[in-house]
Prior knowledge:
The protein is an alpha+beta fold and 273 residues long. The protein is built from 9 helices and 4 strands, in the order αααααααβββαβα. The chain folds into 3 domains: 9-55, Arc Repressor Mutant, subunit A; 75-110; 127-163 and 188-268, Nucleotidyltransferase, domain 5 (2-Layer Sandwich), CATH 3.30.420.10. 43% of the residues lie in helices and 11% in strands.
Amino acid sequence: MPNAFIPNNFHLRNVVLFLFLSGLKVKDIHEKLTATYDTNAPSQATIYRYVARYKEEDYSFEDEPKSGRPRELDLDKLREIVEDDPYLTTREMETVLDVDWSTVARGLKTIGKKAKLGRWVPHALSDFDKDRRVDAALNLLTYHRTTNWLDRVITGDEKWVLYDNSERRAMWVDEDEQPEDVPKPSLHPKKILLCIWWSVNGIEYWETLKEGETVTAQVYTAQLRKLKLHLENTRGAQAEIYFQHDNARPHVARSVKAELEGYWMARTTPSPL
Length: 273
């Protein structure tokens, strides 16, 4: 049965000192320690270092202070630095605090800090933009108290749809069994463009373009005419509609704006008696 005792550095230095004072050479000391402690024995180079100190009559068992940067870390100072500039790297922190990188990493973990990437947003908003959004939201909420304007909003967008949407998922298999192979997706997969418009009632109108075809101002104008005809058939020619789309180039083309303005003028101009 192997010995369960595991020596520490203090114990090993005492044993090396005893064997050194007994007149043994470094090689013999290493052999004795290896025979006794097996893999827990110090290396021959380490024993050389101990014996060199004993030959100089230095019988202390404590390591001399190292010349490197101190390992002590002021956690309050670290927290102050991180909160002042949370974008500092650990390498920059070690320079400011004059400690090792690993010490900074342990300190950050101790104070509960963890590096996280910020969430991508479409664009940065100024304070003016934020205030304007709040005002618009409050006005819409006030308007919604008197009329269900959300029921009249039609939103449209485009989305590329892949023919093959295969994905790799984990499989439950036996320990000696290999899961099924999954082919990597192509760099240029076959896809079509789905154009869709919806409201609170669900999908109002949709269509897919031909393979390789994309949305242009001409295509988008034709789609708006089809959408207008569909809404007139489902909601009536006099139904009030709020149309919403993003500012993609085909959506803001002059011909598209003219089409939308013409539709609005036709809706607001009184019909002749």
